[in-house]
Amino acid sequence: MLRPKIPTMPTPTGHVSRPAVVEPTAVIQHTPATTAPVAPASPPRPTVQLTPGSVLALVGGGTAVVLVVGTVLVSMLLAVAVTAASVAVCALVIRSLVSSQHRR
Questions:
Q1: In angstroms, rounded to a whole number, what is the distance separating the alpha carbons of residues 59 and 50?
Q2: Does the reported pTM lie above 0.85?
Q3: Which of 3, 72, 98, 101 has the smallest set of CB atoms within 10 Å of its CB?
Q4: CA torsion, points 93, 96, 101, 103, in degrees to nearest 10?
Q5: What is the mean pLDDT of residues 1-27?
């Protein structure tokens, strides 16, 4: 009644062809003929040009990042300190309750 039914793979019907054989092909290296010498590239220009406005924007952005990261770190430290203080208070209360039960 509760026997599992195992599916069977159907047999292929119709014409069954053999897999195609892939033959390797030869790779021929082509060496280009030498041409006229390449002209030297122009001298490199500086990629970053700092203007007073961009320096001010960089300083402002850096200050904002430092303030945000500092706020996050201080809040995490405060959360750890509050958790530690509450665990210490709970430990003292439990210790007090256990010691008062031994006296009775």
A1: 12
A2: no
A3: 3
A4: -170
A5: 73
